[in-house]
Amino acid sequence: MPTDTIVKVQEYKETLITKAETLITKRFPEKIVQLNELLATPMFNERNFIEVHQDLNIPVLAPVLVNKKCPEEDEAAEGNDNNDHPPTKRARKDVIVTGTPVLALPTGSVPCNKPLCEMITVVKPIIRKLVEDSNLLKMWISFMIPKIEDGNNFGVSIQEDTLAEIQTVESEAAAFFDQISRYFLSRAKVVSKVAKYPHIDDYRRAVVELDEKEYLSLWLVVCEVRNRYSSLHDIVIKNLEKLKKPRSSNTESLY
Q: What is the pTM of this model?
């Protein structure tokens, strides 16, 4: 392997270790304070469910009267009037009323929920930052793990437990992104039902309930991100000495 490549890899490791230590000692406390201040803003603290309600811009069409008597029944009734025989019973035919074909909405497009979109714009960078920070810490712990040896593995077990906790946080943060995308997909499906069946109020109420649920979920996501930063900072600071020096005899191979 070229010497230049080895030097670059070593520089990358040293830079990553420096960034991770700064992240733990300085950036994490700042992030916790920042998220607490965000949760105290009117967007997350004072907004109630009514403020996230939004008109769908889908009007209710005028009712259409359906004649349940089929033409064959009219002809049979006229025929029975011309003779003395009792009317012949016909099999009952139920008229099925389908939904309204939606080619275009007369009042224009159905907008996304604006208050929730504003919250999502704020929340998504926070989630992305947690994923990035978790990934950085994960690599930092991995570089700290010494080579496998017999005995004196208590510090290594602490590193492995911390690494597992960081990986869990990273997975949860990535799942928050999926939650946001699933909200838009679910809302689009319910709104399409409203467009097809505008006279059914339950579909309209389902959209309202879905928006309220997403508002609560976004608030909860910010709380969970703050809690994850707090827990990671706490567990790393408490075990920082063992994380950096899991074996006192292997000090030379840590960095």
A: 0.77
pLDDT digit string (tens) for 20-79? 999 999 999 999 999 999 999 999 988 788 888 988 888 887 765 555 555 555 555 555
CB atoms within 10 A of CB 176: 22
Residue ranges per structural domain of the chain? 16-59+112-253
Task: Give the type of residue at 202.
Answer: D
Structure confidence by residue, pLDDT tens digits, 178-197:
999 999 999 999 999 998 89
User: Do the beta carbons of residue 107 and residue 57 sit within 8 Å?
Assistant: yes
Q: Whose structure tokens read 């900072």?
A: 233
**Residues 196, 100: contact at Cβ < 8 Å?**
yes
CATH architecture of the domain with residue range 16-59+112-253 = Up-down Bundle (1.20)
Token duo for residue 83 = 């003779």
DSSP codes joined into one string, 7-66: HHHHHHHHHHHHHHHHIIIIIHHHHHHHHHHHHTSTTTTT--GGGG------PPPPP---
